[in-house]
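Quick one from the shared queue. A colleague (R.T.) flagged non-specific serine/threonine protein kinase as missing a structural entry in our internal table.

Convert sequence to structure tokens.
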Amino acid sequence: MSHCLNPNCLQPNPNTTIFCQKCGSKLVLQERYFALKILGQGSFDLTFQAFDTEKPSQPYCVIKQSFSQVQDPNAQEKSEELFKQEAIRLKHLGKHQQIPELLDYFIQDHHQYLVQEYIAGQNLAQNLARHGAFSETKIMNLLAHLLPLVGFIPLLSLSEINK
């Protein structure tokens, strides 16, 4: 099954279709990314597991779709500028082995898209639900893996935060 990327629809569709059977939206982004299922949903974004039809192995990837309700053209322009800055930072961060690589980013139909490497496995909430609270040893092990990563991520200066 494929998933419609229209946030007002999200209809599952057979893999053989290129347009959503419910709303008519195109199912393939940028002529290459094909959404398979929703991984998560927030107030202003959706995350899909997808695959890249342009590469011979058609690897899985993750599409993060952000949508805003901004009507003011100046605010929309500022939102798009901030999105591009975030994408550039993510591209830099993706050079670390513990951070999924940013594969692509673009704006289409007033929606902002980040395409990142797909990492199979459970997130922290799923792990806790399945195995319960971590022991002290497990917490120490987790921190030992996370702290070097925190050192890799540049901290925002006050001037960047106040922009």
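The chain has a mean pLDDT of 87.
Strands lie at 2-3, 12-13, 28-29, 33-41, 45-52, 60-67, 102-108, 111-117.
Added to the table.
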